[in-house]
Amino acid sequence: MTHALYNKKNEKIITVTTLVNNTFPLLPDNPNFYGVFFFNKADAKLTIDTKEIKVIDKNILFYYPYQKLQLEGSFECVFIQFHPDFFCIDIHAKDIGC
Fold first, then answer.
1. Cα separation of 51 and 84, whole Å?
2. What is the pTM of this model?
3. Mean pLDDT throughout 3-32?
4. What is the distance between the alpha carbons of residues 5 and 11, in angstroms, rounded to a whole number?
């Protein structure tokens, strides 16, 4: 299940997805977003670019935009992706330089 939040320009700025026992694609749907994986249960392997990481229960992993990701194995996690503009508040964007 995926939930998304959009800004005033109707651009997606954050998504929250529940993943269970899937094979995660090489690139996320929003490759220009930052991402965070919150693993509740896991016996999996995450490859970021060319680095392999063993994923176990209760892990949190972060990645930068445009990194190539591959997630394989058994896992339950919440995956959050957010655009850098997520940190900007639409009302105050001119005041804080966003």
1. 24
2. 0.79
3. 78
4. 8
